[in-house]
C-alpha cells in the first residue's frame, strides 16, 4: 500500500473526480475539501471529460457561482452524504440557481458544447435562457460555456447574491478544492459602500481569486430599457487605474455618461 503522504502529493495533479476513483482503487483517505468539491461538481456532471477538456485544451477554468454554495458545501461533510454520495443532496439542491462561468479568452470552448451536454447529469435545456434544469433541482445557466461570450447577460442578478450582497464560487481546477466567498469589495457595482443589491445597479464586475492563477474578473449585467453597456451609445463606462485596460487591469468602478442618472436600481436618462 502506498503511503498516505505520497498520495496527498499525487492528488494535487488529479481532478476531484480522479481523486475519488484513485481513493477507491488504492484505499486512501480523501480530505474533506476533496469530498465536498467532488460532490458539488458531481451533482451537475456525470464525468469530468468536458471539464478537463476546458482546462487542458482551451485554458479555461470553469467556475460555479451561486448565492450560498457554502450551505451545500458544508452539508456535504455530513456522515450520511459521505457514505451515500450526491443523491442525498437532491432535496437540498431543489430551487438552487447557479451560473457556470467559463472565461474563454480565445473563444473556442463553445465548439465543444455537445460534449458539455453529454457530460451533464440528467436534465432539460431551455435554449432561449441558456438554462439547464437538472433533476436534482439545480438550475444552471451555461450561456458563457456554449457561446464563449465575454460579458454575461442575465435576466436578473438577484439569484447570484445573498441578502448581505455576497456570493460564493468554486473553481473546477483548484489545488485546494476550496469554496470561496466573494465579499462586498469583490463585487464592483455602480454604488460603492452598500450592502443592498438594488444599489449596485444593473451591472457588476465580479472578482474571482484563484490560489495559483490570475485574478479573474467577470462582468455580469441585466437588460434595462435605458441601460446600454457597450458601443458608442453606452450609458456607462468602466473605471480603471491609469494606464490599465480590461485585458491588463482590474475594474475599479463605473461612471455614468453625461445625461444619465442611477435611481431606484435603474440607469435612466435625466
UniProtKB/TrEMBL annotation:
Source domain of life: Eukaryota
Name of the protein described by the UniProt record: Uncharacterized protein
Organism: Rhizodiscina lignyota
Amino acid at each position: 500500500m502506498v503511503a498516505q503522504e505520497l498520495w496527498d502529493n499525487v492528488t494535487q495533479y488529479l481532478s476531484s473526480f480522479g481523486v475519488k476513483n484513485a481513493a477507491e482503487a488504492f484505499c486512501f483517505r480523501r480530505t474533506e475539501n476533496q469530498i465536498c468539491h467532488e460532490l458539488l461538481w458531481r451533482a451537475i456532471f456525470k464525468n469530468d471529460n468536458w471539464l478537463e477538456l476546458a482546462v487542458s485544451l482551451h485554458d479555461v477554468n470553469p467556475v460555479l457561482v451561486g448565492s450560498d454554495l457554502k450551505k451545500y458545501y458544508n452539508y456535504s461533510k455530513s456522515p450520511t452524504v459521505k457514505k451515500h454520495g450526491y443523491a442525498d443532496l437532491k432535496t437540498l439542491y431543489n430551487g438552487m440557481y447557479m451560473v457556470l462561468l467559463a472565461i474563454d479568452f480565445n473563444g473556442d470552448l463553445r465548439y465543444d458544447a455537445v460534449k458539455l451536454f453529454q457530460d451533464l447529469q440528467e436534465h432539460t435545456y431551455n435554449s432561449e435562457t441558456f438554462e439547464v434544469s437538472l433533476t436534482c433541482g439545480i438550475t444552471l445557466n451555461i450561456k458563457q460555456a456554449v457561446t464563449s461570450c465575454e460579458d454575461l447577460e442575465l435576466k436578473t442578478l438577484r439569484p447570484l447574491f445573498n441578502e448581505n450582497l455576497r456570493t460564493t464560487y468554486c473553481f473546477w481546477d483548484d489545488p485546494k478544492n476550496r469554496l470561496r466567498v466573494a465579499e462586498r469589495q469583490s463585487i464592483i457595482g455602480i454604488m460603492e459602500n452598500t450592502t443592498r443589491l438594488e444599489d449596485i445597479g444593473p451591472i457588476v464586475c465580479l472578482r474571482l481569486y484563484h490560489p495559483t492563477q490570475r485574478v479573474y474578473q467577470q462582468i455580469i449585467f441585466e437588460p434595462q430599457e435605458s441601460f446600454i453597456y457597450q458601443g458608442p451609445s453606452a450609458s456607462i463606462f468602466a473605471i480603471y487605474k491609469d494606464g490599465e485596460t480590461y485585458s491588463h487591469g482590474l475594474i475599479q468602478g463605473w461612471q455614468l455618461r453625461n445625461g444619465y442618472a442611477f435611481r431606484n436600481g435603474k440607469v435612466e436618462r435625466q
